[in-house]
Each structure stands twice: as C-alpha cells, then as structure tokens.
Amino acid sequence: MGMLPESLNECKLYGIEIDNISGRIAGQLYQKNTIAVKGYEDVELPDSFFDVAVRKCSFW
User: Fold this and answer.
1) Confidence of residue 7 (pLDDT cuts 50, 70, 90)
2) Could you tell me whether strands 34-37 and 14-17 are parallel, antiparallel, or unpaired per DSSP bridges?
C-alpha cells in the first residue's frame, strides 16, 4: 500500500491482517484504506467486487 504508484492513488484498497498489532499499525499508516484485523476466512467480502487480489506472505 505504501509503494502504490501515484497513478493509482484514487483506487480503493482493502487489507486483511490477522495479527492485532500489525493490523492496528497498518490502519494508522494507511488511514484512507480499509484494514480488517481478523483471519481471512472470517472477513466478509462481496462477490464480483475486486479487480485484483494480491497475497503477501512473510516468514521470519
């Protein structure tokens, strides 16, 4: 979200973060975006709403 090109600034972005602390940090960093702090399987997402979905996994 932080590296989004300027040409896409008007796009609506949605994030899902299972970790409470990381989710709250993302919510503060990206206040104009929607951040759900819960498991992906628990988030209600509308059908045929998204144009693109990107999944990022980080392993420490």
Assistant:
1) very high
2) parallel
Domain ranges of the chain: 6-42
The rounded distance, in Å, linking the Cα atoms of 36 and 46 is: 14
Q: Which residues pair with 34 in a beta bridge?
A: 14
57 token code pair: 């996994």
In three-state secondary structure terms, 34 is strand
CB atoms within 10 A of CB 23: 17
Each residue's pLDDT tens digit, 31-47:
999 999 999 899 998 88
State CA 19 to chain mean position distance: 13
